[in-house]
Amino acid sequence: MREIILNGYIDDEVWFGDEITPENLHAVLYDDSKNQAEDVHIRLNSYGGSCNAAVRMHDDIAAYPGKVNITVSGTAASAATVLCMAADHLEMTPGSLWMIHDPSIMAIGNVRALKDAIHLLEACKESILNVYSARIRITREQASAMMTKTTWMDAQTALEDGFIDSILTVKQAGPQDSIISQPDAEKKVQMWIDRHNTAASIRNNHIPLKEGVLHEAQDRPSTAEQASQMAEETQEPSSSAAEEVPTASPPVDQPQPLTNPGTPISQLQKRLALIMPPEAKNKGEAV
Q: Coil, helix or strand for 276?
């Protein structure tokens, strides 16, 4: 059985170096050099991210011809729980956490734009409930209420509600699977939301930046250093036999100096604009 490590935030693009993308997962899962009928074990630790990217990854896993078993080792939060629903068998280690909540979005614009954003969030939540409903033992209405109030679950509660199929024993889980602190996990989830909203603000020109601002912030960590720090916080030990989904090049645990630390903000805005479809530029994206 092949093993794949998914450790990081779920997104459509790699910007900080700690993202898991649909393209990277697909490349490893459907590697032509491997037997695609071979069963796969995915070991996951993710604090969420883009709902759109998670759905794409869910569908890729669901379409895989062999069996896919997923073990949550650490945290499965927000969009990561959507990805997990595609598993043929889904389990958690005893100390892991599971979190579901309503999707969120950063919306800017007139009344019509804000109403469109509300409709997008409503549709996004219904699509997530559609995915959950195929597995959970509780009702759709109960799951919806749990999402609304943001619900953190330990492995036992997630099992009782039907989100997962089993819990590994302590001996099966291994010494690397320690108990995860909910406050720490909540901070990691909030980190994604904060940086996603910041990127959305820049795309919509609502953060007053000027050319050369990167030169003026010499005392702040570089983008590579920030990526390295965030990646180290979420890094999980992996077996030498496991395949870790590639994230960014160069590896974030060996950051290289930026060759052009004075990239104009206008160029950064153009790059960030690539993340969002044209029709959503004024509405943001659900996370």
A: coil
Q: How many CB atoms lie within 10 A of CB 220?
A: 10
177-191 confidence digits (pLDDT tens): 456 778 888 887 777
Q: Which of 8, 10, 17, 4 is nearest to 249 (CA)?
A: 17
The predicted model gives 270-275 an average pLDDT of 52
- 139 CB burial (10 A radius; 0-12, 13-18, 19+): exposed
Return the closest-CA partner of residue 63 out of 26, 89, 9, 34: 26
Q: Give dist(CA 287, CA 194) in Å, integer.
A: 11
Digit-coded pLDDT (tens) for 59-105: 999 999 999 999 999 999 999 999 999 999 999 999 999 999 999 88
Cβ proximity of 58 and 32 under 8 Å: no
**Rg of the chain's alpha carbons, rounded to an integer?**
19
Prior bond of 246 cis (ω within 30°): no
pTM of the complete model: 0.68
Both ends of the chain: CA-CA distance in Å? 32
Closest CA to 242 of 9, 18, 28, 38: 28
Cβ neighbours of residue 221 closer than 8 Å, sequence gap 6 or more: 229
* CATH numbers and ranges of domains, the chain: 2-280 (3.90.226.10)
Tell me the β-bridge partners of 46.
76
Q: Which of 234, 237, 245 is nearest to 61 (CA)?
A: 245
157's enclosing H/E stretch is helix 155-160
C-alpha atoms less than 13 angstroms from C-alpha of 248 in its C-beta half-sphere: 23
For residues 224-260, b (16+ Cβ closer than 10 Å) or e, as one string? bebbbebbeebebeeeeeebbbebbeeebeebeeeee
Confidence tier at 238 by pLDDT (50, 70, 90) = very low
